[in-house]
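Render this sequence as a predicted structure.
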Amino acid sequence: MQTSTTAPVSAHEPIRVDLGGGVSALVPTAIPVAWEAAFEGTPVTNLADDLPDHWDPTGDDRSTRLAAVALAWNVFQHFYPYFDVVDADWSATLKRSLTAAAADAGEADFVDTIKRLVADLHDGHGRVGGVAGGPMYLPPLAGDWVDNELVVTAVADGMSGPKPGDVIAEVDDRPVGELLASIAQTSSAATTQHLR
């Protein structure tokens, strides 16, 4: 058994942590993938054997969405190291995310629900990707923020339209500030600079 917090990660060798007052805890540093290997001799139930043939676990399935929220929330709840730093009401995030997942119309809506769950941490590390989000297209130009305005800094060769120095005030008739606020709801950016 390891007694140091610098012990190698092992599903079979927890570390001993002194909690003070003569109390200590054995803390796993990893979760085994094959539970039967960790609990030798314990019967394992394979849930997939009892699933209907037509069932497809995607974001279009309500049960899958609810299970995915519970799983994602619990991974952060038990392994996210910065709850003492970020200002997150994590219990409220669970309730809001389960409510949204239950009502999501399909996979595309569900991707936004999971993005909002991760965004509640505002730490800059989390990101959600998935096929339901669709392909990402980048415009043939670059921009930067100058005095709270999005300014074109470069354009692709042969591009007509915006020129370096132009201010982008709207995209598809939506004000840039409104778009940024919308993106902020699904981005785990730690700062405004990161979000931009």
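Summary. DSSP finds six helices and seven strands in the chain. The longest strand covers residues 149-155.
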